[in-house]
Amino acid sequence: MAASDDVAPPELGEEPGSEDALLLALLLRGALSIEELAVASGVSSNDAERDVERLRAEGLLGVEPRPLGEALALTASGRERASAVLAREADTLRPWLEPRYGAFMALDRRVKQALHRWQVRTDLGADRPNDHRDRRYDALVLAELRAVHAEADAWLAPLAAARRRYASLRARLAGALERAARGDVRAVAGVVGDSFHLAWWQLHADLLRILDRERGPEDA
To answer: Is 80 exceeded by the pLDDT of residue 204?
Structure first.
């Protein structure tokens, strides 16, 4: 289901403009390439390139070296403005999120259990890494992950309808499971490239910042 098919509750308010969305994404995620920034913010690639040029000219963005190129990063002024955006987002979203966060955490526990079983075979008498040669086992775990994802997708739908960054995360979660169904074992919990695990972790990190919560053992 596309985010555009959902209706955002009015209490979620108006989302930040594209420039503020880019700054917020960098505050939440750290230095990113222009391609990563567009995905993280949900801003189109063309709009991201246009806005980055403007933000750099205003002294709000700089660049950091990377082994394979440069990444965009907030300057001190950019961090100040991004922090103000985060504060406004928190004021708007927190009243809606707080009473629903317990439901998210219940989903989070089920997601983590499925991801653990994807990575580690716990059914063979002794824990061992899953080499993904047992297609029946993988299919059972994927079915479990798809079931919890269906509930998580419904939970996320109002946020995705109200904020581009959540719509992007929603699409990434669904896309990862589609790739996994086609046989890409890295799409579930891979550390190179995008994966369901990475998108879920980033969604959780975003919610924690909005709710001003520390990541505890149950949030790892």
So the answer is: yes
